[in-house]
Amino acid sequence: MKVFRWLLVLAVMGFGMMLMIKIPALGLAEAGFCGQCHAMDEQVEAYLHSPHASGANCGDCHDPDGLVTGSVFAAYTGLRDVYRVVTNTTPLEIKTTGLSKQVIQENCMRCHGDIMVMTGNTSDEGGSYCFHCHRNIVHPKK
What fold is seen in the domain 2-138? Predict the structure, then answer.
Protein backbone atom coordinates (compact mmCIF):
# COMPACT_ATOMS: atom_id res chain seq x y z
CA MET A 1 0.00 0.00 0.00
CA LYS A 2 2.87 2.37 0.83
CA VAL A 3 4.49 1.79 -2.59
CA PHE A 4 1.19 2.53 -4.34
CA ARG A 5 0.85 5.77 -2.41
CA TRP A 6 4.37 6.87 -3.43
CA LEU A 7 3.71 5.95 -7.05
CA LEU A 8 0.52 7.98 -6.94
CA VAL A 9 2.35 10.97 -5.43
CA LEU A 10 5.08 10.71 -8.08
CA ALA A 11 2.49 10.44 -10.85
CA VAL A 12 0.61 13.51 -9.61
CA MET A 13 3.86 15.47 -9.25
CA GLY A 14 4.98 14.40 -12.71
CA PHE A 15 1.65 15.40 -14.22
CA GLY A 16 1.79 18.74 -12.40
CA MET A 17 5.30 19.39 -13.69
CA MET A 18 4.18 18.48 -17.19
CA LEU A 19 1.33 21.01 -16.97
CA MET A 20 3.89 23.68 -16.04
CA ILE A 21 5.02 23.63 -19.68
CA LYS A 22 1.95 25.69 -20.57
CA ILE A 23 2.50 28.38 -17.90
CA PRO A 24 3.46 31.47 -19.94
CA ALA A 25 5.55 33.04 -17.16
CA LEU A 26 8.01 30.12 -17.32
CA GLY A 27 8.68 30.73 -21.01
CA LEU A 28 9.00 27.04 -21.88
CA ALA A 29 7.23 27.57 -25.22
CA GLU A 30 9.29 30.64 -26.16
CA ALA A 31 12.11 30.84 -28.70
CA GLY A 32 14.56 31.65 -25.90
CA PHE A 33 13.93 28.25 -24.34
CA CYS A 34 13.55 26.28 -27.56
CA GLY A 35 16.66 27.95 -28.96
CA GLN A 36 18.89 26.70 -26.15
CA CYS A 37 19.44 23.57 -28.22
CA HIS A 38 21.99 24.17 -30.97
CA ALA A 39 20.01 21.93 -33.32
CA MET A 40 17.27 24.59 -33.42
CA ASP A 41 19.51 27.61 -34.18
CA GLU A 42 18.36 27.93 -37.78
CA GLN A 43 14.66 27.55 -36.94
CA VAL A 44 14.78 30.04 -34.07
CA GLU A 45 16.73 32.61 -36.07
CA ALA A 46 14.21 32.38 -38.93
CA TYR A 47 11.28 32.62 -36.51
CA LEU A 48 12.73 35.72 -34.79
CA HIS A 49 12.73 37.54 -38.14
CA SER A 50 9.21 36.43 -39.12
CA PRO A 51 5.87 38.21 -38.71
CA HIS A 52 4.85 35.54 -36.17
CA ALA A 53 7.58 36.58 -33.71
CA SER A 54 5.52 39.54 -32.51
CA GLY A 55 2.37 37.57 -31.77
CA ALA A 56 3.04 33.85 -31.40
CA ASN A 57 5.60 31.67 -29.67
CA CYS A 58 6.92 28.25 -30.68
CA GLY A 59 4.28 26.44 -28.62
CA ASP A 60 1.44 28.43 -30.19
CA CYS A 61 2.20 26.76 -33.51
CA HIS A 62 3.82 23.46 -32.54
CA ASP A 63 1.74 22.31 -29.52
CA PRO A 64 -1.97 21.52 -29.29
CA ASP A 65 -3.99 24.36 -27.80
CA GLY A 66 -5.47 22.49 -24.80
CA LEU A 67 -3.80 22.61 -21.39
CA VAL A 68 -3.52 18.85 -20.90
CA THR A 69 -3.12 17.80 -24.53
CA GLY A 70 -0.68 20.64 -25.18
CA SER A 71 1.36 19.81 -22.08
CA VAL A 72 1.51 16.09 -22.84
CA PHE A 73 2.48 16.73 -26.46
CA ALA A 74 5.11 19.34 -25.52
CA ALA A 75 6.59 17.07 -22.85
CA TYR A 76 6.77 14.16 -25.30
CA THR A 77 8.34 16.14 -28.14
CA GLY A 78 10.66 17.98 -25.75
CA LEU A 79 11.92 14.75 -24.18
CA ARG A 80 12.34 13.24 -27.65
CA ASP A 81 14.40 16.24 -28.74
CA VAL A 82 16.57 16.15 -25.60
CA TYR A 83 17.15 12.41 -26.15
CA ARG A 84 18.24 13.09 -29.74
CA VAL A 85 20.69 15.78 -28.62
CA VAL A 86 22.15 13.67 -25.80
CA THR A 87 22.55 10.62 -28.04
CA ASN A 88 23.76 12.73 -31.00
CA THR A 89 20.95 11.39 -33.21
CA THR A 90 19.40 14.73 -34.19
CA PRO A 91 18.55 14.54 -37.90
CA LEU A 92 20.43 16.89 -40.19
CA GLU A 93 17.11 18.24 -41.47
CA ILE A 94 14.38 18.63 -38.88
CA LYS A 95 11.00 17.65 -40.33
CA THR A 96 7.51 17.51 -38.92
CA THR A 97 5.84 14.18 -38.22
CA GLY A 98 2.31 13.31 -39.31
CA LEU A 99 0.90 14.19 -35.89
CA SER A 100 2.87 17.45 -35.75
CA LYS A 101 1.56 18.42 -39.17
CA GLN A 102 -1.99 18.00 -37.92
CA VAL A 103 -1.27 20.04 -34.77
CA ILE A 104 0.30 22.87 -36.79
CA GLN A 105 -2.61 22.88 -39.24
CA GLU A 106 -5.15 23.05 -36.41
CA ASN A 107 -3.24 25.97 -34.90
CA CYS A 108 -3.16 27.78 -38.27
CA MET A 109 -6.92 27.39 -38.47
CA ARG A 110 -7.41 28.44 -34.83
CA CYS A 111 -5.47 31.68 -35.25
CA HIS A 112 -6.33 32.49 -38.86
CA GLY A 113 -9.79 30.93 -39.08
CA ASP A 114 -11.42 34.33 -39.53
CA ILE A 115 -9.67 34.82 -42.87
CA MET A 116 -10.17 31.16 -43.83
CA VAL A 117 -13.97 31.25 -43.65
CA MET A 118 -14.40 31.12 -47.43
CA THR A 119 -11.59 28.63 -48.06
CA GLY A 120 -12.09 26.32 -45.10
CA ASN A 121 -9.53 23.86 -43.86
CA THR A 122 -7.11 23.39 -46.74
CA SER A 123 -6.05 19.92 -45.52
CA ASP A 124 -9.56 18.46 -45.73
CA GLU A 125 -10.03 15.58 -48.18
CA GLY A 126 -6.32 15.13 -48.79
CA GLY A 127 -5.62 18.80 -49.53
CA SER A 128 -2.45 20.69 -48.63
CA TYR A 129 -1.56 21.93 -45.19
CA CYS A 130 -1.38 25.72 -44.80
CA PHE A 131 2.37 25.55 -44.20
CA HIS A 132 3.03 23.80 -47.50
CA CYS A 133 2.47 27.11 -49.27
CA HIS A 134 3.22 29.48 -46.37
CA ARG A 135 6.27 27.75 -44.88
CA ASN A 136 8.63 30.58 -45.79
CA ILE A 137 6.72 33.03 -43.60
CA VAL A 138 8.16 31.51 -40.42
CA HIS A 139 10.84 28.95 -41.33
CA PRO A 140 12.28 29.76 -44.77
CA LYS A 141 14.57 27.25 -46.45
CA LYS A 142 17.97 28.51 -47.48
Answer: Multiheme cytochrome fold (1.10.3820)
Q: What is the pLDDT of residues 89-127, one digit of tens each?
A: 988 888 888 889 999 999 999 999 888 888 888 888 888
How far is the C-alpha of 87 from the C-alpha of 26, rounded, in Å? Answer: 27
Domain ranges of the chain: 2-138
DSSP strands (E only) in the chain: none
Task: Please say whether the beta carbons of 80 and 98 come within 8 A.
Answer: no
- Residue among 31, 67, 38 at smallest CA distance from 52: 31
Nearest to 32 by CA among 71, 76, 40, 94: 40
What one-character DSSP code corresponds to residue 84? Answer: H
Closest Cα partner for 62 from 29, 17, 21, 111? 29
For the entire predicted model, the pTM comes to: 0.77
Q: Which amino acid is at 116?
A: M
According to DSSP, residue 115 is labeled T
Q: Assess contact for 78 and 90: CB atoms under 8 A.
A: no
